[in-house]
Write a structure and sequence with these properties.
Rossmann fold, four-stranded antiparallel beta sheet, alpha/beta, 2 domains, six-stranded mixed beta sheet, 31% helix, 12 strands
């Protein structure tokens, strides 16, 4: 993303933001509640169109007019509320909106191919090392960490290249936080890029390669996690860093 600007009436939400993300990289995105994180991600996922700037994927400029456009290119967003159907089972949630069908005869009525979807769901969970006792259990009966895992599985089930996770550990117990962060690491190991939005800096420093700070709609710092500290990141978030705005660090 290069030079992204976005305004809503008189409110300038984004001011020339640049964001770089490499293959298999985990980027932590932090900032206060008015920093512009959600707006930037909504531009990346096609919910909002930027007023200026460009999105480049594989050295090719792309334009998203809807979330369907971004999903077609492998960009998936997992919102904080997960957007799961609580009364449906794991299989139905993984394939929600992209159900597999079959016909007994060429011109017969289509039926849901439950057996194939269940088999593919089990295979997907195994690849991600997600343990759920029964894929036919309604997700409302799963723990918070398991529900987050189902949302992640759904995001990567259809060749996702970039997964954006909005506060994935905000409401989880400590034990389940570790499992979700392990899943983020598993995605990285499979070459999937992850943007992790979180107020929990300890999560960012546990799993991210780089951390980017937004403040007032601007990117004010990008640091490799191994080369910075939580204190430095907090200073950038609140605007207490010395010397004014930081130059954006290079990517990989």
């Amino acid at each position: 993303m290069r030079g992204i600007w976005k305004a809503f009436g008189a409110v300038q939400a984004l001011r020339g933001v640049d964001l770089e993300l490499g293959p298999g990289e985990v980027l932590g995105l932090v900032g206060d509640n008015a920093a512009g994180k959600s707006t930037l991600m909504k531009v990346l996922t096609g919910v909002h169109r930027p007023d200026a700037g460009e999105i480049v994927l594989d050295d090719r400029r792309v334009a998203f007019h809807s979330p369907r456009d971004s999903r077609a290119l492998g960009i998936e967003m997992i919102y904080q509320n997960l957007a799961l159907a609580p009364n449906l089972d794991v299989v139905a949630n993984v394939f929600l909106g992209r159900e597999v069908t079959r016909r007994a005869l060429p011109h017969a009525v289509e039926w849901l191919d439950e057996r194939r979807m269940e088999s593919e769901t089990r295979s997907l969970l195994d690849r991600l090392r997600i343990t759920i006792e029964s894929v036919r259990r309604p997700v409302e009966r799963l723990s918070g960490g398991q529900q987050q895992a189902v949302a992640i599985a759904r995001a990567v089930a259809f060749q996702a290249r970039v997964v954006i996770m909005d506060e994935p550990t905000a409401s989880l117990a400590v034990k389940e936080v570790g499992k979700v962060l392990d899943l983020v690491g598993a995605l990285r190991g499979k070459g999937v890029s992850v943007i992790l939005i979180s107020h929990r800096l300890q999560d960012i420093f546990t799993v991210a390669d780089r951390v980017m700070v937004l403040r007032g709609g601007q990117g004010v710092a990008v640091r490799r996690v191994a080369e910075t500290t939580m204190d430095e990141v907090v200073k950038h978030i609140v605007g207490a860093e010395a010397g004014g705005l930081d130059h954006l660090a290079s990517g990989r």
